């Protein structure tokens, strides 16, 4: 991800358009979520027509592009693979009444980027990610993943997402190979394709020793590798990791961290939730600090350091969480809940 | 709905289940081997006990009768009852089961009979105790035939035969085909077994594929796949249905085998007694093991939608549970809910009518009872089949609905 583009994205007052690339006409057309039917005029469209679509954009698929206000000006279009807009999830509990697990969470993630969602236990990380993975339905707000709406096109979203969480387990009585093949079939892959991909994944993850053994007898590391292969078998454009290192020893956690980096270098769009500060520092391009269901601050590590005048991530986190909601002009909570996209990061 | 996806899910669940020893044991081994085994043991033990009781002579004691040597001699001379010498503590002996009964012959018994009067014999026993009751029965039988002898003598003295006082005799003879008799006798049990087995067969996989998956964390993994929820439900549901049907088929086959062989053996042993009574009993047992095959097909047809209903209902209920244990506590009490209507269906006198035809389980139970005894009441059968299919469809729709509810799937 080039820094200039990100800088642009932050400075500009952003708007989102959905553009459809039609292979036959070779043109981008506006459609989908916002401003449906608007013509896209100007050189921007023309320019982009010649450039290859994003790393994970098959032809004919609807995808988000970031279009700056006044897009007639020559600006590079950037595909936005994940757009969360005021995602809100409210649970009803008999004893505690309404619980706002996520409140007006808005952010976006681009290909080749790792977005870190940092928060304490119960901050709303899992709820937010489950909404993006279509496991939960947002109470209000909307989100698109790889151009598909998480409510209306849930199945298509899932086809483009690899979801790995501490809570996504393996079938103990299946072998690693069967487990991977099962999810290949569920994703509609042909048997031959499953076989080649399994072989490739087993090569990459060094799984051949235990590929035909049952998962119930695996060590944690073997389980992790199998889970990773399971999430990658359909080669999703978007990877969602929900506290993947929870309860793992150092070596197993390192495997995960390495794998997340690999995903980035392959141009995948990655969301990574954790409560471990050091992981965020090591991995994430953009960090969102979430607390009590609200996204309180967002930015690169450098930006956050500058904004909070702290070097240590833990200090930054504590200040971000403790500051809300009324100290000074920047009021991150208000930023995050503002309906306009990307604003949480504009202050920097 | 995508059949390729449904079959993928079904295939995986089938493979998973076949590798699970616990399921195989509860689904196939127990109903196939243990149930018929238990039945065999129970039947043989009770037969053995009955034979032992029959073989052991019944001990009685005679009080009085010093002035009635005829009656006394006759009583001592018969072979069935063993007569003990008189003891003062006979009441205690009866209570201690050392003595089965005491016969008191009143004074002047022989003389009264000789005069053509009516005489009374008193029998003391241990009420409700099996052997004591049997002793009373045998004493009664002895005095009945003794009395007949007296009657015959009295009639002969007047130049008459027994026909004078017993001009009529009623003889009953069965003309219904043996399978119908069998259907009537054990017809009530057939649907009871069918339903109970179908339910228990579906129980374990239903809990394992829903609450079990939630507990093990594989449910969330599965939900990440792009397959439509309805396909996941149907794949799992088909697996539960398969397990249920497999249990029914396996255990019924093995039970039918046990019953056929067992009843043949039992009938042979009883017939070996040689008397006409024993032969009748043997015939009755043989006919119990004979069932109308067409009726059985009818029962299967009636029970099938019920099995679908069970599978879908169990799926829905156990999906709600967070863990296997919680599912067990919801599902186990339901066995009684299944047994009660099935039992009522077994009661004699409860007949099918339009209202009962709408009561799930009971309707199938009653219809099956009629079917195995060869009665095909098409209107009721259609009503039952239709209503049960409707219940099954509703349960299945409910299962899909539940599976789509995130507060159920992610219940914490």
Mean pLDDT of chain A equals 75
Share of helix of chain A, binned: 25-40%
Query: Helices and strands of chain B: which structural class?
Result: mainly alpha
Low-pLDDT runs of 5+ residues of chain B are none
Order of strands, widest sheet of chain B: 2-1-3-4
Give the mean pLDDT of chain B: 85
Q: How are the strands of the largest sheet of chain A arranged?
A: 10-11-12-7-13-14
- The backbone outline of chain B, from C-alpha atoms, is elongated
| Helical run tally of chain B | 17
Order of helices and strands of chain A: HEEHEEEEEHEEHEHHHEHEHEEHHH
Strand content of chain B: under 5%
Q: Whole-number radius of gyration of chain B?
A: 31 Å
Work out the strand percent of chain A.
25-35%
Q: Which stretches of chain A of 5+ consecutive residues score pLDDT under 50?
A: 1-78, 324-348
Distance N to C terminus of chain B: 29 Å
The beta-strand count of chain A equals 14
Anisotropy-based shape of chain A = globular
Count up the helices of chain A.
12
Largest interface comes to:
A-B, 32 and 24 residues
Describe the protein.
The complex is a heterodimer of chains A (348) and B (412). Helices cover 34% and strands 26% of the residues of chain A. Chain A has helices at residues 3-11, 43-50, 125-132, 154-159, 176-186, 191-205, 220-232, 250-265, 277-283, 301-308, 313-323, 332-337, and strands at residues 14-22, 27-31, 62-68, 78-80, 82-93, 97-109, 114-118, 140-145, 148-149, 161-165, 238-242, 269-274, 286-291, 294-299. Chain A has a 6-stranded mixed β-sheet, with helices on both faces. Chain A has a 4-stranded antiparallel β-sheet with strand order 2-1-3-4. In chain A, strand 11, helix 8 (250-265) and strand 12 (269-274) form a beta-alpha-beta unit. Chain B has 412 residues and is mainly alpha-helical. Chain B is 70% helix and 5% strand. Chain B has 17 helices and 4 strands. Chain B has a 4-stranded mixed β-sheet with strand order 2-1-3-4, covered by helices on one side. Chain B is elongated. Chain B starts with a helix and ends with a helix. The mean pLDDT of chain B is 85. Classes of the chains: A alpha/beta (348), B mainly alpha (412).
């Amino acid at each position: 991800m080039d820094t200039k583009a990100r800088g642009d994205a932050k400075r500009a007052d952003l708007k989102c358009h959905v553009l459809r690339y039609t292979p036959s006409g070779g043109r981008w057309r506006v459609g989908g979520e916002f401003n449906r039917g608007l013509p896209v005029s100007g050189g921007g469209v023309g320019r982009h027509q010649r450039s290859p679509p994003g790393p994970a954009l098959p032809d004919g698929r609807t995808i988000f592009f970031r279009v700056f206000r006044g897009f007639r000006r020559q600006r590079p279009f950037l595909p936005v693979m994940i757009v969360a807009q005021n995602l809100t999830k409210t649970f009803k509990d008999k004893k505690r009444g309404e619980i706002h697990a996520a409140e007006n969470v808005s952010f976006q993630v681009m290909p080749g980027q790792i977005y870190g969602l940092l928060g304490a236990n119960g901050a709303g990380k899992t709820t937010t990610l489950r909404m993006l993975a279509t496991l939960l339905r947002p109470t209000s707000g909307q989100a698109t993943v790889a151009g598909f709406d998480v409510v209306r096109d849930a199945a298509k979203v899932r086809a483009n997402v690899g979801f790995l969480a501490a809570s996504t387990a393996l079938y103990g009585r299946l072998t690693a190979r069967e487990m991977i093949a099962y999810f290949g079939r569920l994703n509609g892959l042909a048997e031959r394709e499953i076989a080649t991909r399994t072989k490739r994944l087993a090569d990459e993850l060094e799984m051949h020793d235990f590929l035909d053994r049952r998962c119930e007898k695996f060590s944690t590391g073997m389980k992790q590798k199998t889970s990773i292969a399971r999430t990658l078998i359909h080669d999703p454009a978007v990877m969602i990791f929900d506290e993947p290192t929870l309860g793992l020893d150092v070596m197993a956690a390192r495997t995960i961290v390495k794998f997340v980096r690999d995903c980035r270098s392959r141009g995948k769009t990655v969301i990574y939730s954790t409560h471990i500060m050091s992981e965020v520092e090591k991995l994430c391009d953009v960090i969102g600090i979430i607390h009590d269901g609200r996204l309180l601050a967002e930015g690169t590590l450098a930006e956050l350091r500058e904004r909070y005048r702290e070097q240590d991530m833990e200090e930054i986190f504590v200040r971000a969480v403790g500051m809300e909601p009324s100290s000074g002009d920047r009021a991150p909570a208000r930023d995050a809940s503002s309906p306009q996209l990307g604003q949480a990061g504009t202050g920097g | 709905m995508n059949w390729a996806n449904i079959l993928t899910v079904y295939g995986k669940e089938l493979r998973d289940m076949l590798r699970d020893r616990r399921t195989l044991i509860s689904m196939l081994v127990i109903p196939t081997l243990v149930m018929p085994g238990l039945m065999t043991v129970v039947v043989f033990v009770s037969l053995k006990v009955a034979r032992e009781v029959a073989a052991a002579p019944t001990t009685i004691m005679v009080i009085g009768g010093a002035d009635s040597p005829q009656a006394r001699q006759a009583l001592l001379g018969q072979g069935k009852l063993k007569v003990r010498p008189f003891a003062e503590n006979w009441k205690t002996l009866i209570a201690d089961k050392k003595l089965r009964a005491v016969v008191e012959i009143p004074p002047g018994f022989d003389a009264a009979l000789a005069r053509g009067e009516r005489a009374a014999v008193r029998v003391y026993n241990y009420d409700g105790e099996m052997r004591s009751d049997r002793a009373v029965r045998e004493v009664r039988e002895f005095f009945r035939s003794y009395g007949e002898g007296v009657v015959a003598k009295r009639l002969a003295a007047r130049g008459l035969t027994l026909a004078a006082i017993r001009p009529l005799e009623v003889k009953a003879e069965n003309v219904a085909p043996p399978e119908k008799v069998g259907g009537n006798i054990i017809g009530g049990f057939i649907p009871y077994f069918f339903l109970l087995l179908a339910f228990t067969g579906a129980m374990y996989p239903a809990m394992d594929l829903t609450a079990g998956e939630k507990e093990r964390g594989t449910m969330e993994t599965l939900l990440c796949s792009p397959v439509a929820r309805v396909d996941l439900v149907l794949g799992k549901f088909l697996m539960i249905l398969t397990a249920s049907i497999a249990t029914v088929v396996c255990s019924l086959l093995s039970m039918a085998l046990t019953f056929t062989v067992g009843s043949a053996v039992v009938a042979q042993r009883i017939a070996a007694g040689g008397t006409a009574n024993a032969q009748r009993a043997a015939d009755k047992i043989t006919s119990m093991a004979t069932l109308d095959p067409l009726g059985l097909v009818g029962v299967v047809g009636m029970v099938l939608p019920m099995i679908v209903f069970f599978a879908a209902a169990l799926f829905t209920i156990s999906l709600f549970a967070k863990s296997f244990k919680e599912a067990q506590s919801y599902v186990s009490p339901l066995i009684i809910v299944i047994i009660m209507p099935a039992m009522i269906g077994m009661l004699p006198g409860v007949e099918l009518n339009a209202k009962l035809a709408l009561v799930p389980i009971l309707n199938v139970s009653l219809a099956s009872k009629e079917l195995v005894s060869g009665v095909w009441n098409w209107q009721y059968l259609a009503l039952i089949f239709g209503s049960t299919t409707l219940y099954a469809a509703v349960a299945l729709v409910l299962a899909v609905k539940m599976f789509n509810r995130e507060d159920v799937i992610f219940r914490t």
